[in-house]
Amino acid sequence: MNIDNLIKDKYETLTKSEKKIAQYIMNNKKSIIYGTMETIKKNVSVGDATIVRFSRKLGFSGFNDLKIDLAKTELEENNIDSSHDYYDDIADRLISTIKDTASLINPSDLNKAIQLITNCHKLYIFGVGHSGEIGKDFSKMLLRIGLIVQSETDPHFQSQMAAMMTNNDLVIGISLSGETKDTYDSLQMAKKSGANIISITNNNLSSIAQISDITLRTSIEEFLNGGSLAGQLSQLYVCEVLIRGYERQNGVDAVSLREKALRSIMDKRLNN
């Protein structure tokens, strides 16, 4: 039974506050999937306990269980009656991801982020899981324009690094949901040390975005598939935008730097 039918079935048993939650969910399903309990609390003015109690009345173990059910329904609906071959659907999805992410770019925030990268003494990149791997790729991309960056995926090492930072340092935190606890904890410690924080995430209301000086948004639809190619592509696109913006603002001779990088590895090829 989908969420609308569940709500209709239980509606008369709900309290006044719970009915407000029900109405909000039925009208804002995507906000629920990609948001947190804070999303509901800010829009409906209810407490955590009321949201959890409402979720359980519908038969879920809690709010996250409700979110997963909503995401499953959305994913199933998106896969029904496709008129294209699956490989065309994949291509369309990736193209849409780039366009959607591009539409979320705020030029002012982007320029401020580039300025922070330009002015920082040391630059770190924090992420775990798939986002951690994106961070490693980003550090390699930055190396090609002359920036030596430390990308760390181990939360223990992240914490140690964060504790040693100063207000001259910058951390770029990468998390698709913006709710990754390990990344959040490390960024929070870095912030306490005085470091500036840039986050790359798809949710401006997320916990990580809330402690960041600047948030650059990604676009991804599948809540159940955060490790998808589309999700990673949206993150890499933002990374590439930062790099190109840094080159322009700082007059970087990117061709010359790439030539140096290429020549440094040519001797490692078997056939020259």
Automatic annotation (TrEMBL):
SIS domain residues: 113-252
InterPro entries given in the database record: Homeodomain-like_sf, HTH_RpiR, RpiR-like, RpiR-like_SIS, SIS_dom, SIS_dom_sf, WH-like_DNA-bd_sf
CDD domains to which the protein is assigned, alphabetical: SIS_RpiR (cd05013)
Keywords noted in UniProt: DNA-binding, Transcription, Transcription regulation
GO molecular function: carbohydrate derivative binding; DNA binding; DNA-binding transcription factor activity
Single GO BP term: carbohydrate derivative metabolic process
Start and end residues of each HTH rpiR-type domain: 1-77
Gene3D superfamilies per UniProt: Glucose-6-phosphate isomerase like protein, domain 1 (3.40.50.10490), Winged helix-like DNA-binding domain superfamily/Winged helix DNA-binding domain (1.10.10.10)
Protein name in UniProt: Putative HTH-type transcriptional regulator
